[in-house]
Amino acid sequence: MKILVGISRIIVGVLFIISGLIKLNDPVGFSFKLKDYFAPEVLDLGFLVPYALLIAILVVIFEVLLGVALLLGYLKKFTLWALLLMIVFFTFLTFYSAYFNKVTDCGCFGDAIKLTPWESFTKDIVLLILILILFVGRKYIQPFFTKGIRSILIFASFVFCLGITYYVLLHLPIIDFRPYKIGANIEEGMTVPEDAPGPIYEYKWKFNINGEEKVITTNGEYPQVDGELISTETEMIQEGYTPPIHDFTMERDGEDYTEQFLNEENLVVVIAYSLGNTEKDGYIPIKEVTDKALKNGYNVIGLSASSQEMTEALTEKYKLNFKFYFCDETTLKTIVRSNPGILELDNGTIKQKLHWNDAQKLQLPVVENAKPKLDLSLKQRLDSIAVLDQKYRKLMQTNSLEERKKLGESMGLSEAEYSGDLSQMQRVLDSVNMVFIEKYFIQKGYPGKSVVGEESSLVAWNVLQHNPDKIPLYLPLVKKAAETGEIPKTSAAMMEDRYLMMEGKPQIYGTQGMTYDDARGSFIWPIENPETVNQRRKEAGFEETVEEYAKILFGQDFEYKPLTIDQIKK
To answer: Which one in 130, 136, 459, 558 has a CA-CA gap of 20 to 30 Å to 253?
Structure first.
């Protein structure tokens, strides 16, 4: 018995210390797991969610100290009871999660060792047996060292745990066990190997055989029986291979930019998984380092799970010179334990990852053959104008007064603003925006991507589009910007077509359509030499033919038919 107690003492003590230290390395991650347990569909302890991080820290430090106390023989009675109560609670929790399939990963060993719910429950049963052995043979648990030395060692362990906690909360985990660690390639992490095992399903076929119901179970193949099939039930009994990285996307305005950004060199990514509880102080150093990155030739984007309205309000408040794209919140929490945090990507490979406290440590050597330095002051002004350009247009696109009110309140607008004459208010903003843009046009030309970056290069184009009376004056400037690569050729083509349509002339690229509520219906505005329009569209950079584009505008049932100006007039 003495030997059995000694072995159990070592196993339990070492396991508690290792498990605690692994979670202490990433208390934020453990707090996320606790929130899963506190959710309404699990334990329904929502009042504990705000204290999840504090609870996580206390639990893991206590776990480490119990392991140390057991090995030292410190406060034997208290230690054994604490171990027993803790393992009984966690055994119940892991059984509940496994049986009802509530939480798929208990988080016992953080991200270092992934256990299924039933594996976690089995582990806790083994520990429970070992701790009961310690209870029965507690007389064989003899202390090491003197009482004073044991107290000093326990206190030193406590200080050591506090030191680790303090460091990882102000920086990042000391050891990164997640699939987004430095050196990992995101695209490779999302790839499923060709020889990866697929899921295994069990099929229960219910047949009527000679008036008697019979159930036959197979793994997919249809049973060879003579009878009438009544029903089939399918159950997955073993999951297939799941890549370590999934649910990773970079989206904005309904478009997926994941492939584009994962194939881009010198990309800096600011991650703010939730703006509702983000560290506002973090955006001061974030702005400094991202401005430096832009000047040194890097592209900078943000990733957040918050709404576009919230991210635009944040960029406006802190004068950030980049746009946010959408990504799943759980994924962003997994990438970096900092809100905000910062990454450097090179063709999808994570080169640097930092807490916002360490943003100034981001190494940003000047990129060879980098694009010219951007005018960040102008970029900030244009990004602000871009928000104003869409301010009331977003409200005008709502489908109901209730939806308009909800959106208006989320934008911080008063009732008078979101309930007023939206068209008139937007026209006023368009005129004000055009004053600034026109002044810049006259003094310096078109503010293209070499001046304000690719993402801000079309702001002036949008403002001009919304002031059609100015298009005849500045269309040549826009066409010149397209010829020199400052804006896409497609943008200049669309504006030229719009100008020609306003003048009552045939367009060139077939980008403009009209819709009437009367017998005229919908149609593509007349095109000059329509038989060669698709060639011109291709040369201008359009991917769709005019026939395909017409279906995008007016629906899949629409059939494009060339019209003449005379036909339109009639």
So the answer is: 558
Q: What is the pLDDT of residue 17?
A: 94
How much is the pTM? Answer: 0.68
Question: Which residue bears the tokens 């020199």?
Answer: 484
Cα gap 247→486, rounded to integer Å: 34
DSSP lists the bridge partners of residue 303 as 271, 325
Structure tokens at 135: 């209870």
Strands 267-271 and 299-304: parallel
409-461, pLDDT tens digit by residue? 888 888 888 888 889 999 999 999 999 999 999 999 999 988 888 889 999 99
Residue 76, pLDDT > 70, answer yes
Helices then strands, each counted (H, E), the chain: 22, 12
Sign of the Cα pseudo-torsion (207, 209, 212, 216, in order): negative
CB contact at 8 A, 279 and 340: yes
CA distance 435 to 260: 35
Q: Which residue has the tokens 């109560």?
A: 85
Q: What's the CA gap between 342 and 388, in Å, rounded?
A: 28
Query: Alpha carbon of 425 to those of 42, 313, 408, 428, 429: distances in Å?
Result: 49, 20, 14, 5, 7
Give CA 560 to chain center in angstroms.
40
pLDDT band at residue 377 under the 50/70/90 scheme: confident
- 359: pLDDT strictly greater than 80: yes
Sign of CA dihedral 341, 344, 349, 354: negative
Asked whether residue 286 carries a pLDDT value surpassing 60, the answer given is: yes
Q: Find out whether 446 and 459 touch, Cβ atoms under 8 Å.
A: no
The residue among 463, 475, 287 whose CA lies nearest residue 385 is 463
Residue 462: partners with Cβ closer than 8 Å, 6 or more residues away:
386, 389
Structure tokens at 47: 């009042």
Strands 251-252 and 255-256, by their bridges, are antiparallel
With helix as H, strand as E and coil as C, how does 87-155 read?
A: HHHHHHHHHHHHHHCCCCCCCCCCCCCCCCHHHHHHHHHHHHHHHHHHHHCHHHCCCCCCHHHHHHHHH
In contact, 390 and 319? CB cutoff 8 Å = no
Candidates 485, 409, 414, 419; CA nearest to 446 is 485
